[in-house]
Design brief:
- By secondary structure, the chain is mainly α.
- Helix content is 73%, strand content 2%.
- It has 21 helices and 2 strands.
- It has helices at 7-22, 27-55, 77-104, 111-130, 134-152, 158-189, 194-200, 206-224, 233-236, 242-267, 274-293, 298-319, 322-353, 364-367, 369-383, 389-404, 407-436, 462-465, 482-500, 502-518, 520-527; strands at 58-62, 71-75.
- It has a two-stranded antiparallel sheet with strand order 1-2.
- It is globular, with a radius of gyration of 23 Å.
- It starts with 6 loop residues before the first helix and ends with a helix.
């Protein structure tokens, strides 16, 4: 089974090479390769998850070079769970993107760019989850950065180029800080391997160890979009194409959360800056959700809720207990899926009505009840309505905070409650403005296409929202493809499956937390002790 560990990294890169080789004209072959490879990766991820849970961490030393010289890939319970969730999400998003491409049927559409870049992104995400040392974690981040910049700027519009430039500048600065952290760690210990660092960092002077921890947490905090280094996210993600925004918002920030979780449990147990993590979690929870309350554009609103809910995960990590770590793992898996689903639903809404500006929408629940349902279910899940997985994850985190009993833990518990209530408020706000109320009369958006009166769809005409063609309702000529709707429905069902499988999921998260806190299984598996 150890031989399967590199496949989530290798298979997408191989498929990327094939996509580059076959050229842009064989569009069907691009689709077959992408879907087939990501489906195979998901199967491998599931096998690794079952095997890691049954036997413990699976380790591969590439080239058969032992640490610290060789490249080590490790699939323990946490890494395998994150691989499985990300594999399912990336496959669904690719199907969504292919449905959009098939509906548009534009020969100029950059499918020959999108597919290789997307596969490289998947490979980079897999490498970050499997990396057994700081250097390869850095390489995984850089692979994601390279692919992310291409995907963010697809189409070459001015807003996308501006947002992509901001994203790249922030990422490059964080990469420089990451290199500094690796250099200090290697100078102090003579290794970058996680297992060896676990042993050797205990012999390093406290000041140096704290410096390494602060440098790494700064980098991972930028990747996770935690306050106060989250200002780049609401300006970068909403401008990208819907599939790109969905996978970025759902998955890429969780790579930063995963890295924080790995570092705090494996490298810096019993750290001295848990209080700082509490402050960051507190600020992320409240400032992020207050930013969401002030938004009238759906995608920007979702971007701010993303910043807020990173605070839930950081809260569990800061607690450092088995219950807190387990709750953070459950909530991370839940949030990857739910946040992706919400952005996919926002993409459907934008495609049908040409806008995600809430003040220009209305009557969607009557005109498109399926689309309304695809929004409503994950929105309630994000808000934490019982018995959905969002409620289960928050309940686990709050129980862990109450068990901790400290003042900081209780303050964070209160912040979690406030953030949950305000999340419910913003989701209800979106429902009332975009879905429930009658559509307002309005002038067309700049660049929007208005259909002729003879071609007017009555389901979104005057009967649906009190807006007639005479007053120029915003319309889009593109219908919502069934493949895109089906992919979004699959994402909704995946999120609901966490509720159905709550007992196995929480049990796996609890065992993952115990393994992370013990550290010994990981170290022994890598070093062969």
């Amino acid at each position: 089974m150890n031989a399967l560990v590199p496949l989530p990294v290798v298979l997408p890169l191989t498929a990327c090479g094939l996509s580059m080789f076959i050229g842009p004209r064989l569009r069907l072959l691009h689709r077959i390769i992408g879907i087939g490879v990501l489906a195979a990766v998901l199967v491998v991820d599931l096998v690794l998850l079952v095997e890691a849970d049954r036997t413990g961490p699976l380790v591969v030393h590439l080239g058969d070079f032992a640490p610290p010289l060789g490249v080590t890939l490790v699939a323990d319970r946490l890494a395998a769970l994150m691989l499985t969730v990300s594999g399912a999400v990336t496959l669904i998003v690719l199907v969504y993107a292919l449905g959009q491409d098939m509906a548009d049927r534009e020969e100029s559409a950059p499918i020959a760019v999108f597919h290789p870049a997307y596969l490289v992104l998947v490979s980079g995400v897999s490498l970050t989850f499997l990396a057994g040392d700081l250097v390869n974690l850095y390489v995984g981040f850089e692979i994601m950065l390279m692919a992310s910049f291409v995907l963010l700027t697809l189409g070459g519009t001015e807003p996308r180029l501006r947002a992509g430039s901001t994203y790249v500048v922030v990422s490059l600065v964080s990469s420089l800080v990451f290199l500094a952290g690796i250099a200090v760690a290697y100078a102090a210990t003579g290794t970058a391997n996680f297992a060896q660092l676990t042993v050797r960092l205990q012999e390093v002077p406290l000041g140096v160890r704290t410096l390494i921890e602060v440098l790494l947490l700064t980098v991972f905090g930028v990747k996770a979009a935690a306050f106060p280094v989250a200002a780049w996210l609401p300006d970068s993600y909403p401008t990208a194409p819907a599939p790109v925004t969905a996978v970025f918002a759902g998955l890429l920030t969780k790579v930063g959360v995963y890295s924080i979780l790995r570092a705090e449990t494996l490298l810096f147990p019993g750290n001295r800056i848990s209080a700082l993590l509490m402050v960051i979690a507190f600020a992320s929870l409240l400032i992020g959700i207050l930013g969401a309350v002030a938004q009238t554009d759906l995608k920007r609103l979702l971007s701010f809720t993303l910043v807020s809910h990173i605070g839930f995960m950081l809260y569990g990590i800061a607690l450092g207990s088995r219950g807190g770590i387990g709750g953070a793992i459950v909530y991370t898996a839940h949030h990857i899926t739910v946040q992706t689903t919400l952005f996919l639903a926002a993409g459907l809404l934008e495609r049908r009505y040409g806008t995600t500006e809430l003040t220009r929408l209305g009557g969607v629940a009557r005109a498109a009840p399926l689309l309304a349902a695809l929004w409503f279910v994950p929105a309630m899940n994000l808000a934490g309505i019982p018995p959905l997985s969002g409620f289960l994850g928050k309940l686990g985190l709050m129980r862990a905070g109450a068990a901790d009993g400290g003042t900081d833990a209780y303050l964070l518990l209160g912040a979690c409650a406030v953030a949950s209530v305000l999340t419910l408020y913003v989701t209800v706000k979106v429902w009332n403005l975009a879905f429930w109320r009658a559509a307002p009369a309005q002038l067309p958006l700049e660049g929007a296409v208005l259909e002729d009166a003879d071609d007017t769809d009555e389901s979104v005409g005057a009967d649906a929202g009190g807006c007639s063609v005479a007053v120029a309702c915003v319309r889009t000529t593109a219908r919502v493809p069934r493949v895109m709707t089906a992919a979004t429905a699959c994402a909704v069902l995946l999120g609901l499956s966490y509720t159905v499988l709550a007992t196995p999921l929480t049990g796996l998260a609890d065992r993952s937390a115990a393994e992370l806190l013990a550290r010994t299984p990981y170290v022994e598996a890598v070093l062969g002790q």
